[in-house]
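Review form for a predicted model. The reviewer records the input and the model, then writes brief findings.
Reviewer: anonymous (R2)
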Amino acid sequence: MAAASEELTLPADRIVERRTQVAVSREPDTDGQLLGFGTIEGEPPAGELGMLFVDPPAIGTGVGGALFTHLTALALDLGFHRLTIAADPNAEPFYLARGAVRIGGVPSGVAPGRVLPLLAVAL
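Model under review:
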């Protein structure tokens, strides 16, 4: 469990370095609530969509798609031409529907023996 926590945690001192973008609620009863976040990592022209997480109650509401669109547009503005994504297997269809293609697999840093889909999206 400690390995998962470390792998899936974004330390406060790395938020800027990892070009973190957030989605927050603007609904009156939940204004300011964090709905999701994502990171762009590496240096142009090729980088990585390092993280893209959505709060479970917000899944299926368009938050993830909006974050993905925003992150890829920002990456393009920053000079990236391609992003790779080590995706959770359950998230692979989400990325494929947005133009990513599977280019291989990478070992999970959390679960020994588990292989994550490695995807790429051209910007």
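Findings: Residues 1-5 have pLDDT under 50 and may be disordered.
Further findings: Residues 63-77 form the longest helix (15 residues).
Recommendation: see findings above.
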